[in-house]
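Sat 14:20. Reprocessing the chain from the morning session after the first attempt stalled halfway. Input below, unchanged.
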Amino acid sequence: MGHIFIASDTCAALTENIKAVYLPSHCFTDRKISEFTHYAKLTGLNAVVLHVKDPHGWIRWKSNNQLAKKMGAVASNGLVEHTLRRLKQQGFWCIAKLDVFVDHRLVYHNPFLGILDVRTGGPWNDKNGLYWANPFNGRFGNTISRFVRSWWILALTKFNLIIFDFPVTVTFP
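Finished this time. Tokens:
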């Protein structure tokens, strides 16, 4: 999997010994966060990756993005914000993980944005039945950039790092 990392100004304060754990969105509960913080202190963990947009297209934070609202993709009741606040208060470095091209909900509601299955003429889906957006479709680029802009400032002021996860390796010279 490829990753693009976008960091806020807090990267300068980042130590070289980051020890992180991944938390899927179903773990954004008071009980799970209490368990995590307890064991993190025992084991020396100092960072957490929060999966805030999953391959199914669910957005786990409060978003005012019109397309996300229209698709019913906003699946937030404030748990990301609450989880983030608790973790930051305890000094954890917080990383947001967003799936970009594996976005079942986006392609389901906008099939023209998906990778085309030449056998069926409809959107292609992977072995898990999930639709993938077509990274070479210019309309997808416009759609995702509007989506990202709608929460960019909010995310950068709250998260220390944002990971856009996608299945293409990006290399820079």
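Residues 88 and 94 are 7 Å apart (CA to CA).
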